[in-house]
Amino acid sequence: MQILFNPIFFNHKTDGMHPESAKRLEAFGALPVTQIPDGLEALDLVHDPAYITKVENYCHEEKRLDPDTMTSPGSFDAATHAVGATILASEQHDFALVRPPGHHAYRGKGSGFCLFNNIAVAAKHWNQKGKKVLIIDFDGHFGDGTYAIFKDVKETFYWSIHQYPAFPHQGSSSDIGVGPGTGYSICNPVPPRSGDDIFLDAFYSFLPIVRQFNPDIVGVSAGFDAHMQDLLLDLNVTLSTFYKIGFELSQQFENIFAVLEGGYNVAVLPKCVGNFIAGINQEKMPHQETTTVSKIQDWNTYDLNKHITFNHLSSNWDINARL
Q1: 120 contacts 151 by C-beta, under 8 angstroms
Q2: In this predicted model, what pLDDT tens digit does every residue of 135-158 receive, in sequence order?
Q3: Residue 252 CB neighbours (<10 A)
Q4: How far apart are CA 230 and CA 140, in angstroms?
Q5: Helix count (H) and strand count (E) of the chain?
Q6: What is the chain's mean pLDDT, rounded?
Q7: Rounded CA gap, 268 and 278, in Å?
Q8: pLDDT tier at 323, thresholds 50, 70, 90
Q9: Is residue 306 part of a domain?
Q10: What's this model's pTM, rounded to 2 decimal places?
Q11: CATH of the domain at 64
Q12: What angle do CA 173, 217, 153 make, to 5 degrees?
């Protein structure tokens, strides 16, 4: 897995105090430039045509899609190329280092700094080819847009590990999809202050279930705001967890790609991404931190939610399966 990057992502401008700024990618220093295709023609795999036109017009006028989601004259091109980069990453099994992020974007609504849902479009790209896609979202915020897009289908399985309560105040342990998609979504809420132990328990506990889905391709919504030094959440995850997740995924699945979602501490973000990619590539962990341990009351909250999720999934999957 390699990083795919292009300076066009700097064209999405936000104000100086906004956490989702160009500084996030500037922190990576000089990166090789990848020729990124424009994903404009693929947008309607997920997004309503009227919404696509709305985003384009709002970008020209520098209007916000919501109070937190800014646009600028260069945002539309940056956002469509973020989609294109994610599709390219899915074809090459690489990491799309893009902005704006995508997992809070719905079919017809932008939210949470997101204009278009990058990973959802890439997943639909493969669904159109008859492939099953697993989306693993370990961003510390629940990917409400991605869940809404796929909650009623079984071609794409969505799995999120996220802090709750926190924005967007969704993603409860009983959310496992609806209709024909029932059982094809997993929501793993973890309480504030959760450390490496709880976060990894959520990952390892439910990995045997998503393995049963037997996906053709695995897409990772790779957000790093669960890190203990991040600005927007209250989790205590360290760099080692991102490495371990990457390493285990590469042990369990063959075709993996990833796209950047959150992660707002610019001093830490490159280390988080570096550890995750090193894990995927089965390389030595480049950045070390002392692992964190959660308090017993947080374990109690987490365990309750975990067992609720298992109970809801028990009619769809073997919840006693092991790797």
Answers
A1: no
A2: 999 999 999 999 999 999 999 999
A3: 14
A4: 10
A5: 9, 7
A6: 98
A7: 15
A8: confident
A9: yes
A10: 0.98
A11: 3.40.800.20
A12: 50
